[in-house]
Amino acid sequence: SCFGYPLSIFFIIINEFCERFSYYGMRAVLVLYFKYFLQWDDNLSTAIYHTFVALCYLTPILGALVADSWLGKFKTIVSLSIVYTIGQAVMAVSSINDLTDHNKDGTPDVVTVHIALSMIGLILIALGTGGIKPCVSAFGGDQFEDHQEKQRSRFFSIFYLSINAGSLLSTIITPILRAQECGIHSKQRCYPLAFGVPAALMAIALVVFIGGSGMYKKVKPQGNIMIQVSKCIGFAIKNRFRHRSKEFPKREHWLDWASEKYDKRLITQTKMVLKVLFLYIPLPMFWALFDQQGSRWTLQATTMDGNFVAIQIQPDQMQTVNPILIIIMVPVVDAVIYPLIKKCKINFTPLRKITVGMFLASLAFVAAALLQVQIDKTLPVFPAAGQSQIKILNLGTSGATVKFGPQIQDVTVEPLQSVNYMTFETSRLQSLNIIYGNITTTLTPELAEENRYTLGIKDVQNITNVLLSDGITSKPEEGNNLIRFINNLGESVSVTMGDTSFGTLMPLSASNYSLFPGGRTDEITAVINSVSCSASSKAFGFGGAITIVINECTAGSLGLKYFDDIPPNTVHMAWQIPQYFLLTCGEVVFSVTGLEFSYSQAPSNMKAVLQAGWLLTVAVGNIIVLIVAGASKLSQQWAEYVLFAALLLAVCIIFAIMAYFYTYIDPNEIEAQLDEEEKKQVKKDLNLNENQPEAGTQL
């Protein structure tokens, strides 16, 4: 022992920290991996993400059955941890871009290989993490003797702290690893590192756990109470169906039909459990909203500005707000909020707390919807079918006027200024006139539908113009920027920015767009006739497209002018904090209270059944996301948020009605009555045996 604790529990706590780091680290970057590496759209990425989470919360039932009925907790943890580690390793391999990038163009040539490996890895991880979930904490509790009740209680507190520590650190670290660039043939977002580190942590967790093998107290499998409860319920239903005719008298409760085979204690305990499980029916809707932090809310963050002064926050790092707020809010709610409510003489029962938690989660999605409306206002509008867009860029030293024809307003552009994209019916825009002072020229543009163009004009002796096809059909994702250059000099120029070469640009020509990470500055170098000029770029934002015009190169200094083709993200990620705050407050009063209520209303030997039921509500909640998101067909994301908020509010009202009619019980009192009845029955049986004459005795 160490400080009065079994030495073995320190191996278990280290194991739990590493395992939770592994799981939450992988899960933090998962939806972005689906979207940006596997190139799935938002809906498919969300669907697969929630399918995986649902599977992770369905497999604990399997793990509990295997541990209690066959292998025991130790062997189950070791076996499934090996499966878990293999799954994490397969995920890391699946994200290696160079695995199938045979033509070295920076994109996988056989995406199906990466998808297949990813799905295999996720299934193995779900089996592993779900299977060991119900075993590790119970195995830790087994290490204590009966007289170590105080140490056991502290162990569970430390155990829970290790879970949150692993979750918090991994959600901070793995997005940073993902944001790095790595690769053999081409540099890409470093998903292999983001998945590889969690895989390494899971391997460490396995080694540490096995390392303490000689110190563990290993309890042999004693059968699973869930199997007994299931058999009791099954027999009662079957027996009731057999005796469904009116000639058989009704019984007080349908479970009483199991009395022919099962004792009164098991039937009474099962009744208490089913009473709580009935209240669980509306709860999955809460988890349907809660687990969208890792999917929809993370995708929402990709369209926002993550620049926090000197720190750049990655979209998937915003999930850390939840564990940070939990650490703050749990003691605040317990030590401040609840006592204040009690002083106001409000009977804030556990079921009322759960109702409030659901209401707060609904408000969180209303906040998310309002934020999404503001984000949508900043998003560019691209041309639809039958339309084209033109942006005018005046590269000259005098003002210019562009006439688009009858019924279309003329546009005047000042020197080195631009007029943002204007939308036209492609078939109607046959020609346009450009006027510089007294000089007029006519341009007959050849426009393609659903495309954007930049019209560059300049007054060099005569009017010179160039119509550039932009080729951008969507806003840059993941906070990246698209950057191109236009040569506004009279000679050819070779341009580089950072490590990227834009090639040699002829006068009044433009380069193609190149992708750069957002929130950074780079050195720009232009070479004209072997003369080099350079300048540092301005600090770019996130998610924009920028045209940089080279205006002069004198004395080694480069004159540049910047034009936003697509504005950078302007809504700050900090605006997500209110919705995280509301959701976390909801979690504190919902989740903590829910477990506490469940345990207070269930018999001591039925805790595992309620734990399985609670985890099942999480799984069903994630399945609800798949159903609602798939069936709603809403084109606007804010509308989907409102839909989820409305559904949870409706469920919240239903739960409040159910809670109103619920009668609290004391399982200890009921079990004491059962003990008393059993003692009386034993005494009665003994008296009966004493009065029974021996065989062969004559009366």
From TrEMBL:
<keyword id="KW-0472">Membrane</keyword>
<feature type="transmembrane region" description="Helical">
    <location>
        <begin position="324"/>
        <end position="341"/>
    </location>
</feature>
<keyword id="KW-0653">Protein transport</keyword>
<feature type="transmembrane region" description="Helical">
    <location>
        <begin position="353"/>
        <end position="373"/>
    </location>
</feature>
<comment type="subunit">
    <text>Interacts (via extracellular domain region) with trypsin.</text>
</comment>
<dbReference type="Pfam" id="PF00854">
    <property type="entry name" value="PTR2"/>
</dbReference>
<keyword id="KW-0812">Transmembrane</keyword>
<dbReference type="GO" id="GO:0015293">
    <property type="term" value="F:symporter activity"/>
</dbReference>
<comment type="function">
    <text>Electrogenic proton-coupled amino-acid transporter that transports oligopeptides of 2 to 4 amino acids with a preference for dipeptides. Transports neutral and monovalently charged peptides with a proton to peptide stoichiometry of 1:1 or 2:1. Primarily responsible for the absorption of dietary di- and tripeptides from the small intestinal lumen. Mediates transepithelial transport of muramyl and N-formylated bacterial dipeptides contributing to recognition of pathogenic bacteria by the mucosal immune system.</text>
</comment>
<dbReference type="GO" id="GO:0016324">
    <property type="term" value="C:apical plasma membrane"/>
</dbReference>
<feature type="transmembrane region" description="Helical">
    <location>
        <begin position="44"/>
        <end position="65"/>
    </location>
</feature>
<keyword id="KW-0571">Peptide transport</keyword>
<dbReference type="GO" id="GO:0035673">
    <property type="term" value="F:oligopeptide transmembrane transporter activity"/>
</dbReference>
<keyword id="KW-1133">Transmembrane helix</keyword>
<feature type="transmembrane region" description="Helical">
    <location>
        <begin position="193"/>
        <end position="216"/>
    </location>
</feature>
<feature type="transmembrane region" description="Helical">
    <location>
        <begin position="641"/>
        <end position="662"/>
    </location>
</feature>
<feature type="transmembrane region" description="Helical">
    <location>
        <begin position="77"/>
        <end position="96"/>
    </location>
</feature>
<protein>
    <recommendedName>
        <fullName>Solute carrier family 15 member 1</fullName>
    </recommendedName>
</protein>
<feature type="transmembrane region" description="Helical">
    <location>
        <begin position="111"/>
        <end position="132"/>
    </location>
</feature>
<keyword id="KW-0813">Transport</keyword>
<keyword id="KW-0325">Glycoprotein</keyword>
<feature type="transmembrane region" description="Helical">
    <location>
        <begin position="608"/>
        <end position="629"/>
    </location>
</feature>
<dbReference type="InterPro" id="IPR018456">
    <property type="entry name" value="PTR2_symporter_CS"/>
</dbReference>
<dbReference type="InterPro" id="IPR036259">
    <property type="entry name" value="MFS_trans_sf"/>
</dbReference>
<dbReference type="GO" id="GO:0015031">
    <property type="term" value="P:protein transport"/>
</dbReference>
<keyword id="KW-1003">Cell membrane</keyword>
<comment type="similarity">
    <text>Belongs to the major facilitator superfamily. Proton-dependent oligopeptide transporter (POT/PTR) (TC 2.A.17) family.</text>
</comment>
<feature type="transmembrane region" description="Helical">
    <location>
        <begin position="153"/>
        <end position="173"/>
    </location>
</feature>
<dbReference type="InterPro" id="IPR000109">
    <property type="entry name" value="POT_fam"/>
</dbReference>
<dbReference type="InterPro" id="IPR004768">
    <property type="entry name" value="Oligopep_transport"/>
</dbReference>
<keyword id="KW-0769">Symport</keyword>
<feature type="transmembrane region" description="Helical">
    <location>
        <begin position="272"/>
        <end position="290"/>
    </location>
</feature>
